[in-house]
Specification:
Layout lengths: L1 H28 L1 E6 L2 E5 L5 H17 L3 E11 L2 E12 L2 E12 L4 E4 L6 H5 L12 E8 L6 H10 L5 E4 L8 H9 L3 E4 L12 H19 L15 H4 L6 E2 L3 E2 L2 H4 L2 H10 L6 E5 L3 H16 L2 E4 L1 H7 L9 E2 L4
Parallel strand pairs: 7-8, 7-12, 7-13, 8-9, 10-14, 11-12
Antiparallel strand pairs: 1-2, 3-4, 4-5, 5-6
Bound molecules: zinc ion.
The site of zinc ion has 5 residues, from loops.
């Protein structure tokens, strides 16, 4: 009798162990959760910290930014410790199903992820849902800062933080090293971070491959710090023509209100120049690398607030002005 009980218990135990592993195998490969009624996100789970945290943050961003009904599924191909993961995002808007996909190359050994650039498309730019929609009686402007970061950028960030103002920073790739913490702070303060290419060369002096390479380098450096790819591009010196425009597969942001801070180095003069012609929808050009620029903000921001302006990021400005944001297109202002 004892023998039978023993056999029965052992069999039961083996079944339990098998069930545990079978179940575990399922969860390793496939996680699923409900985010809103009938919207599921089904996603792979690799037990690899870099990859799992990337996927989690990617999905979180989607969840937060999306106001459409969406369903995300995935496919993946595994070969020689490399995984090609493709996310398929199906969204339903006005009863029309729009599909887009984003693919990643994941190197399991080195835990590095490369995002396929061809998957950038207009939906990424236009699916942003801003929480605090501005009231219609306010005029809006965007402050933009080029060529940083350097030691002065933190001063600029502190002033923006003090007034609870969001701005857009176009980061110069060759200045990133040594200022990673500043970029992290920028990101945590919800500033918009754009790509100002790597070496501040005139586009006319670079060939097509060099332009793509410069943009890619900055993308990767910023991605490693913020876990996010910059969407907007500002070419060095704001110089762009139709031929070069076709190479830059992103929205290209120039300006219409030039503070000339690089020339003046005088906060009062910078302030006068910006405020003199200020208009609703302006994109203002400044440089976060100069002390006089930071000082001028202490004059400019209170004056703009007094004049009933709301200060927003470039993406917010275009969104509030109902301007469709498209790759390869140049934007000078929100007008
Ligand atoms: Zn510049």
């Amino acid at each position: 009798m004892k023998k039978y009980i023993f056999i029965l218990l052992t069999t039961f135990l083996i079944i339990l162990i098998l069930l545990y592993f079978y179940d575990r195998r399922e969860t390793v490969l496939n996680k699923k959760y409900l985010i809103k009624d009938s919207i599921y996100i089904e996603y792979p789970y690799f037990h690899n910290n870099t990859i799992d945290s990337y996927i989690t943050s990617y999905l979180k961003e989607y969840k937060e930014n999306s106001f459409e009904k969406l369903f995300i599924d995935y496919d993946y191909l595994e070969e020689n410790d490399k995984i090609k993961l493709t996310m398929y995002i199906h969204s339903l808007k006005n009863n029309i199903i729009k599909n887009k996909k984003k693919s990643f190359q994941i190197d399991l050994i080195n835990s590095t992820i490369f995002i396929n650039k061809n998957d950038f498309n207009e939906n990424i730019y236009n699916n942003i849902n801003y929480k605090d929609k501005q009231s219609s009686d306010k005029k809006i402007v965007a402050l933009t800062f080029d060529d940083g970061p350097n030691f002065n950028t933190n001063k600029v960030l502190s002033i923006l933080e003090k007034y609870n103002v969001k701005a857009t920073f176009f980061i110069l790739g060759c200045n990133i090293k040594g200022h990673e913490q500043t970029i992290k702070r920028m990101h945590n303060l919800n500033m918009e971070i754009g790509n100002h290419m790597y070496s501040h060369n005139l586009l006319s002096k670079l060939n097509d491959q060099e332009i793509t390479k410069e943009i890619d380098m900055v993308d990767k450096l910023l991605y490693n710090i913020t876990n996010k790819l910059p969407i907007l591009i500002r070419p060095s010196y704001g110089s762009i023509n139709n031929k070069r425009k076709k190479i830059i597969n992103r929205p290209i942001i120039i300006w219409n209100n030039d503070s000339l801070d690089w020339k003046y180095h005088n906060s009062k003069k910078i302030y006068n120049r910006v405020i003199k012609n200020i208009q609703d929808g302006d994109i203002i050009l400044m440089h976060d690398i100069y002390r006089a620029t930071a000082n001028s903000l202490e004059l400019i921001i209170p004056e703009l607030i007094k004049k009933n302006y709301q200060i927003v990021t470039v993406s917010e400005l275009l969104y509030y002005k109902n301007i469709k944001v498209l790759p390869n297109k140049i934007y000078n202002s929100g007008k």
